[in-house]
Amino acid sequence: MPQWSAGAGAGIGFAADERGAPLAPWATLGARADVLFGQKRPPDLGVGPAVLATTSWFGDARLLTGPTFFLPLAEPFGVGGTVGAGLWLAPGGAEPAIGARALLGARGFNYLGSYSMAGGVELGFDRSLGSASRTALSAQLQIDGALLAIPFLWAVTALRDGIR
Fold first, then answer.
1. Residue 6: helix, strand or coil by DSSP?
2. Is the bond leading into 43 cis (omega within 30 degrees of zero)?
3. What is the DSSP letter of 89?
4. How many CB atoms neighbour CB 123 within 10 A?
5. How far is CA 49 from CA 1, 55, 108, 139, 153, in A?
6. In this structure, are strands 46-55 and 26-36 parallel, antiparallel, or unpaired?
7. What is the pLDDT of residues 24-67, one digit of tens each?
8. Contact 146, 118 (CB under 8 A)
9. Closest CA to 3 of 29, 40, 54
10. Distance between CA atoms of 156 and 129, rounded to whole angstroms?
11. Domain ranges of the chain
């Protein structure tokens, strides 16, 4: 059964412009969703597609898609990676981009359903392939989307059913 996951992250990043001059560190925000196939039990390698979106404090957007994997080392902890291609949207325009992510974290195996919670530390590299030649490095703490949804679900339930 495929195991899918979605989450968001926040962290710090560094960038270099087309001349290679380093720029000041900036806050980075991201979101990701993926589906892993091939895991029939927790220690199995999972491989599948992923979609990533990252921003440098809303000054740009990097949208990537590509293959991803997660290799459990000791349940539920493991390592994962994603490589992708997509677009780098910046004030100067949109350019093709490539990127890679490495994850050290946890990903549960759902025996009864298809959603698996995930989280950890993600290191990222992005490079634009256009004339601007931007490069970005980032480190983010990834948190599962289900955990982020809990306060909103509580609020909706309280508004609908009343607080008791």
1. strand
2. no
3. E
4. 15
5. 15, 21, 18, 21, 28
6. antiparallel
7. 788 999 999 999 999 888 889 999 999 999 998 888 999 999 99
8. no
9. 40
10. 44
11. 3-161
Q: Give the helix, strand, coil percentages of the chain, each rounded to 5.
A: 10, 60, 25
Write the single-letter amino acid at 57: W
CA distance linking residue 5 with residue 107, whole number of Å: 9
Q: pTM of the full predicted structure?
A: 0.86
**Two structure tokens written together for 82:** 């994603």
Q: Which two tokens stand for residue 134?
A: 């931007």
- Supply the Cα-derived Rg of the chain in whole angstroms: 18
Which structure tokens are listed for 9? 């992250």
CATH topology of domain 3-161: Porin (2.40.160)
- The residue behind tokens 């001349």 is 19
Q: What is the C-alpha separation between 99 and 11, in angstroms, rounded? A: 17
HSE-up of residue 83 (Cα within 13 Å, Cβ side)? 0
